[in-house]
């Protein structure tokens, strides 16, 4: 009977280990950025080609490495921050060079240029598929530059799962944005396709950094948060209840300055907003939880995005209180609602005039089988609670075919909740979600333009400057040709 258990070769084990850390180009960017920050960098430049699938370079002005350290940095299990098992639970840095570089080098070609400030020359190290090819002296500026190319060439299966260039670039921008939010004193520059895509100044003001990355609309809506208890400090900013999104993409949590996804902190924040925002709406949050290194385990997963608190209940309570206290000060004053009711009639009349004018301008076209509004069928018989079985719904979906209702046949009645418009017509009542209706109007307009109609456009004498968050900007630039075709 033949033996079945074998020892895997080192090359294969390195690839397996790398797969736990390096999932896509954004993973490489994350590891290299964290290394640069651990080295004390104040200026970091990231260069991407084809969304990072073809080439990635991260340059920093931090503390460089000598020839010996530069060579050892690519060795498996080489690090500068752990000397004993106890150190594993007192980690304060992200991972100085030697932890991430072997994983990156195992699935790509890596060129490292590094030089310590007062050294006469720097060191150049070239690694291909985890094997050292060159170690030599070279001339280079102080700091470190890591260039990564031929990503996943030796792991073709992983390469097949990469998305389009714009998608991968968006993931890289996400990583850069998350790290930049936690380090407002560091300047981050991003080059893509030979063009400067982002230049995030290192002003040191966290509020400026939030506005730059998340959008100008948050400038006047940020509430500072700070609470201390024992060996824990919670600080940062949260948005007012009026500033919410349909997704949690603007919620950022950091534990000891490390970005994490933690259900304890997330639940604590949302519990503080309970009753202040609608269901399935999320505020903008930048929250830093600082605890003793031994009170949190960051080694749950190789990416270190999942953590485990020693006292999760205490963390939850402190975070919830830290966020709830400033939000409580925003409660409306007694009598404010009464004042609002006094002007309700005036607002309704003003809104009525605006809707009537809009109805004259907009026309929505659709096929016979695509109704925009479904009329509520009026029941001629008198409703009787006892005439039907218990639990019978008063309203049921009509089985009649969809009917088109022209705007001219509608008479505006009123508006409710800043969202719904009420109209009367001969068949009953029509309720319109004004936001959905506006989206449909724009959609129909774009469909006509895409069908070949010449899009109306007007050149402005003075250009209008519009700012976007970094990821939105990259998405817009990727779709610029389509946008130009739409006018």
Features:
globular; 14 helices; Heat Shock Protein 90; 8-stranded mixed β-sheet; 5-stranded mixed β-sheet; Ribosomal Protein S5, domain 2; 487 residues; single chain
Tell me what you see in this structure.
With 487 residues, this protein is α+β, with helices and mostly antiparallel strands. The model is unreliable at 333-344, 361-373, 378-383 and 385-392 (pLDDT under 50). Among the domains are: 10-204, Histidine kinase-like ATPase, C-terminal domain (Heat Shock Protein 90); 208-328, Ribosomal Protein S5, domain 2 (2-Layer Sandwich), CATH 3.30.230. It has helices at 10-21, 25-38, 67-72, 101-106, 156-160, 165-181, 206-214, 263-272, 312-328, 336-342, 344-361, 434-450, 470-478, 480-485; strands at residues 43-49, 55-60, 109-115, 122-128, 131-138, 143-149, 187-192, 195-200, 222-229, 232-239, 244-245, 251-255, 258-260, 282-283, 285-290, 296-297, 308-309, 411-416, 420-425, 428-433. Strands 5-4-3-6-2-1-7-8 form an 8-stranded mixed beta sheet. Helix 6 runs antiparallel to helix 13 (470-478). A hairpin with a 6-residue loop joins strand 3 and strand 4 (122-128).
The shape, in one word, is globular
Number of separate strands: 20
CATH-derived topology of one domain: Heat Shock Protein 90
CATH superfamily of one domain: Histidine kinase-like ATPase, C-terminal domain
What is the CATH top level name of one domain?
Alpha Beta
Strand order in the sheet with the most strands: 5-4-3-6-2-1-7-8
Q: Measured on Cα atoms, how large is the radius of gyration?
A: 29 Å
Assembly of the depicted chains: single chain
Extract low-pLDDT stretches: 333-344, 361-373, 378-383, 385-392
What does the largest sheet look like? 8 strands, mixed
CATH architecture annotation name of one domain:
2-Layer Sandwich
Mean pLDDT: 80
> What share of the residues lie within helices?
25-40%
Strand residues, percent: 15-25%
- Enumerate how many helices there are, as a single number: 14
Distance between the termini: 74 Å
Structural class: alpha+beta
């Amino acid at each position: 009977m033949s033996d079945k258990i074998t020892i895997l070769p080192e090359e294969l084990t390195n690839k397996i280990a790398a797969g736990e850390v390096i999932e896509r180009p954004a993973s490489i960017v994350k590891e290299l950025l964290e290394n640069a920050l651990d080295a004390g960098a104040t200026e970091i430049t990231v260069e991407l080609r084809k969304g990072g699938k073809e080439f990635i370079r991260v340059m920093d002005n931090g503390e460089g490495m000598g020839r010996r350290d530069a060579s050892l940095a690519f060795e498996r299990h080489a690090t500068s921050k752990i000397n004993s098992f106890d150190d594993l639970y007192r980690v304060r840095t992200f991972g100085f060079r030697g932890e991430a570089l072997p994983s990156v080098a195992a699935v790509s070609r890596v060129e490292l240029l590094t030089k310590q400030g007062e050294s006469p020359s720097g060191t150049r190290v070239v690694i291909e598929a985890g094997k050292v090819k060159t170690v030599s002296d070279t001339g280079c500026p102080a700091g470190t530059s890591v260039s990564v190319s031929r990503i996943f060439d030796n792991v073709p299966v992983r390469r097949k799962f990469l998305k389009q260039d714009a998608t991968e670039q968006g993931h890289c921008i996400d990583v850069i944005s998350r790290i930049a939010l936690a380090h407002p004193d560091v300047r981050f520059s991003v080059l893509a396709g030979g063009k400067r895509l982002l230049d995030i100044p290192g002003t040191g003001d966290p509020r400026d950094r939030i506005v730059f990355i998340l959008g100008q609309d948050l400038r006047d809506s940020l509430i500072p948060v700070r609470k201390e208890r024992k060996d824990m400090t919670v600080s940062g900013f949260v948005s007012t209840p009026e500033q919410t999104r349909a997704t949690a993409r603007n919620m950022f949590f950091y534990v000891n300055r490390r970005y994490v996804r933690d259900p304890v902190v997330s639940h604590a924040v949302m519990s503080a907003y309970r009753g202040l925002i609608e269901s399935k709406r999320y505020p903008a949050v930048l929250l830093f939880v600082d605890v003793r290194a031994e009170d949190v385990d960051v080694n749950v997963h190789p990416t270190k995005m999942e953590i485990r608190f020693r006292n999760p209940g205490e963390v939850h309570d402190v975070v919830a209180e830290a966020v709830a206290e400033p939000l409580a000060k925003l409660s409306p004053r007694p009598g404010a609602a009464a004042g609002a009711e006094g002007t309700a009639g005036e607002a309704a009349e003003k809104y009525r005039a605006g809707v009537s004018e809009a109805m004259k301008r907009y026309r929505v076209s659709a096929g016979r089988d695509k109704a925009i509004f479904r009329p509520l069928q009026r029941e001629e018989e008198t409703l009787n609670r006892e005439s039907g079985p218990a639990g019978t719904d008063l309203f049921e979906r009509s089985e009649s075919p969809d009917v088109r209702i022209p705007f001219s046949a509608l008479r505006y009645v009123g508006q409710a909740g800043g969202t719904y418009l009420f109209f009367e017509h001969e068949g009953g009542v029509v309720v319109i979600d004004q936001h959905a209706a506006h989206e449909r109007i724009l959609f129909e307009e774009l469909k006509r333009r895409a069908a070949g109609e010449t899009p109306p456009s007007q050149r402005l004498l003075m250009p209008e400057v519009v700012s976007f968050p970094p990821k939105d900007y990259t998405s817009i630039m990727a779709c610029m040709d389509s946008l130009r075709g739409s006018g």
